[in-house]
Structure formats: structure tokens, C-alpha cells
TrEMBL record:
Keywords carried by this UniProt record: ATP-binding, Nucleotide-binding, Transport
Location within or outside the cell: Cell inner membrane
PANTHER family, A to Z: TRANSPORT ATP-BINDING PROTEIN
Originating species: Primorskyibacter sedentarius
Chief place where the protein resides: membrane
TM helices/strands, residue ranges: none
InterPro entries (alphabetical): AAA+_ATPase, ABC_transp_ATP-bind, ABC_transporter-like_ATP-bd, ABC_transporter-like_CS, Oligopep_ABC_C, P-loop_NTPase
One Pfam family of this chain: ABC_tran
GO cellular component: plasma membrane
One annotated GO molecular function: ATP binding
CDD domains for the chain: ABC_NikE_OppD_transporters (cd03257)
Residue intervals of the ABC transporter domain: 5-261
Protein name: Peptide/nickel transport system ATP-binding protein
């Protein structure tokens, strides 16, 4: 089926502002490649999680998907229609269909407005509900995000609410205009661990009830596994692996995904007694990408070919793809692949 939202070979290059040192030396900083041929397809009613460390480009992909940023090249298609260059009324209509939830709920809410005013605002902006119906729509939405009694939450100010309650209101604000797609960028990572699953379950319940589609951006693979039907793993601006959540977790075909799984919290609990399992090496920066496979400086399986040739995207069946020269072997035998060869 046709994707509802399609990010088509996006490339996003930022030219760094010449800093003090480079002005002094006359050497320009290299451009930062925040997205390098990123293609993601979002299908109606599903959740696609985009997983990556900071600097992976996952947030850039989300910002382009909501047209907060325009890509250097490549396009965004909504229901098959090119939307990349939209402005004015057409952009506003697109925004009514594709909403965003941010990591920090404080950013989404004006501290001087009551909850009711904050929730009514998008309804008025998009002219969706007559003024006389605003209060009822707000109360209904507060019920949907399980803030009860709705009447007393409606008249509260953000400063009177907890972080978890505020994030529920930010979710309500994004969903009150009944968008088709919601891009959620780390919506629970700032919340107390004890209330995260409540917010995730709320989002899943709303999806069951409304059929809304989620693009869920997270650094946490276990969160992705819990939330998503499909997972895309990003690293230094590129998608390294993608596939149905279950096959990607149980039979990852990219060494980076394997390392992320080993580093995931539920794995860590039973893993060798180390305080922290860390990926070897530092994430290279998006400027000055290494030649060949962009993951080779950190890859425990790297071979000479990996330094010379960028790996093609290998199709592994069942919708799983991975950009590694040894994807088929890694899928079968994991990180033992080379050491047993
Ligand atoms: Fe590692 Fe080579 Fe695969 Fe890159 S192509 S992930 S360096 S084995």
C-alpha cells in the first residue's frame, strides 16, 4: 500500500558558521551532513520508531517530516503528493494532518495560558470547532488522555501540573485536531521512569482508538521495541537497518543494531558485570564522515573492504534491510560472524 508519509532520499547539509579558529586559520569547517539519503515510509495506522544516538540524524528526519526544516535535496510526500515546498494555507493544511510532540512539554505549552486555552488554540487556528463547542472538545480530549476530573485540569496552569501531566496535555494538544500522523520526538525521555510506561500506553491506546500513525523518535531501543511495529536504526545521518520490530530485535543484521541491543537496559541487567556496556569508540561526527562504511571505526567486525567501499543496502526478506557488507552473515550468527569464520 502507498505510504501515508514518505521521506524520499532526504539529504540535509548544514554549512557550519565559520568559527573563530577557522577565520584565524582561513580553513573552513567541513559541512555537517545531518541526513544522507534517508528514505523512510510510514504506513497508515502503524508506528515506525527511528532509533539512534545523538547526532544520528533522527531529530533532523522528524523536523523535515513536519516541514519545520526543508531538506537540501530529496522530498516529503504526504499521501503520494509532494509537500516539500508548501507554504501558506497549503502548509497550514498539512500541519493539521501531521502534528509533532516534543521531548519537553514545557516547550509546547504557554505558561500564561490555562490548559483549556492551550487546547482550544489549535482548534481555533484550524477552524475545526465552533467557539461554542470548544469547552466540550477540550474536556473530551482531557478525558482521552486520562486527566480526571477534566474540569479541574482544564482550568489549571502549566505551573500547577507535574511533568507527566504536562506531557499528557502536550499529547492532547497535538491530537485534539485529529491529525493523521504524529511525529513524537523522545516524548517520555524527560519523564520520571515510573510514569513513562503510563504515557507510552496512553499513546498506544489512542492509536488503537483512532488509527493515528506514529513516527516515534528515540535513543532507546527498548522503548522502540515496546512502541513500534517497525524500527529504523540511524547512525551519522543514515539509516543502517530497518525492519519489523520483532525480526530486527531477534535477528539484527547490522553490527551496530547488535551492539545497541547488547547495550539496552533489559539486556544489561543480565549481562556481564560491568557498570556500563558502551559501544567501542566515539561516534564520529557528521562532518568528516569516514570513507567506506560510516560505522567502520567502531565496528568490531570491520574488514579491509569496509574502509574502502560503502556497503549497499541488503534485503534480508520480510521487509528487513541492512547496510553492511556482511548483513546476511550477521543476521544468522550475530557478532560472532567474523571471529568464527
Ligand atoms: Fe562493520 Fe563492515 Fe558491516 Fe560496516 S560494512 S557494519 S564496518 S562489517
Amino acid at each position: 500500500s502507498k505510504p501515508i508519509l514518505h521521506l524520499d532520499t532526504l539529504r540535509m547539509v548544514y554549512n557550519a558558521d565559520p568559527g573563530f579558529l577557522s577565520r584565524l586559520t582561513g580553513r573552513a569547517d567541513p559541512p555537517v551532513i545531518a541526513a544522507d539519503d534517508v528514505t523512510l515510509e510510514l504506513h497508515a495506522g502503524e508506528t515506525l520508531a527511528v532509533v539512534g544516538e545523538s547526532g544520528s540524524g533522527k531529530t533532523t528526519a522528524g523536523r523535515i517530516a513536519t516541514l519545520q526544516e526543508r531538506p537540501t535535496s530529496g522530498g516529503v510526500l504526504y499521501e503520494g503528493q509532494e509537500v516539500t515546498g508548501l507554504t501558506g494555507a497549503a502548509l497550514k493544511a498539512f500541519r493539521a494532518k501531521v502534528q509533532m510532540i516534543f521531548q519537553n512539554p514545557y516547550d509546547a505549552l504557554n505558561p500564561r495560558l490555562t490548559v483549556s486555552q492551550s487546547l482550544a488554540e489549535p482548534l481555533m487556528l484550524h477552524g475545526l470547532v465552533p467557539r461554542s463547542g470548544l469547552r466540550a472538545a477540550v474536556l473530551e480530549m482531557l478525558e482521552a488522555v486520562e486527566l480526571r476530573p477534566a474540569e479541574s485540569f482544564a482550568d489549571a496552569f502549566p505551573s500547577e501540573l507535574s511533568g507527566g501531566q504536562l506531557q499528557r496535555i502536550a499529547i492532547a494538544r497535538a491530537l485534539i485536531i485529529k491529525p493523521m500522523v504524529v511525529i513524537a520526538d523522545e516524548p517520555v525521555s524527560m519523564l520520571d521512569v515510573s510514569i513513562r510506561s503510563g504515557v507510552m500506553n496512553l499513546m498506544r491506546g489512542i492509536q488503537r482508538d483512532t488509527g493515528v500513525t506514529y513516527l516515534y523518535i528515540t535513543h532507546d531501543l527498548s522503548v522502540a521495541r515496546y512502541m513500534a511495529d517497525r524500527i529504523a536504526v540511524m547512525y551519522l545521518g543514515a539509516v543502517l537497518e530497518e525492519g519489523p520490530a520483532e525480526s530486527l530485535i531477534s535477528a539484527a543484521a547490522h553490527p551496530y543494531t547488535r551492539l545497541l541491543i547488547e547495550a539496552a537496559p533489559e539486556h544489561r541487567a543480565t549481562a556481564v558485570k560491568r557498570n556500563r556496556i558502551r559501544l567501542p569508540g566515539d561516534a564520529a561526527s557528521q562532518s568528516g564522515l569516514p570513507p567506506g562504511c560510516r560505522f567502520h571505526p567502531r565496528c568490531p567486525l570491520a574488514q579491509p573492504i569496509c574502509r574502502e567501499k560503502a556497503p549497499p543496502r541488503a534485503a534480508l526478506g520480510g521487509g528487513q534491510t541492512a547496510s553492511c557488507h556482511f548483513a546476511h552473515e550477521v543476521k544468522k550468527t550475530g557478532l560472532a560472524t567474523m571471529t568464527t569464520a
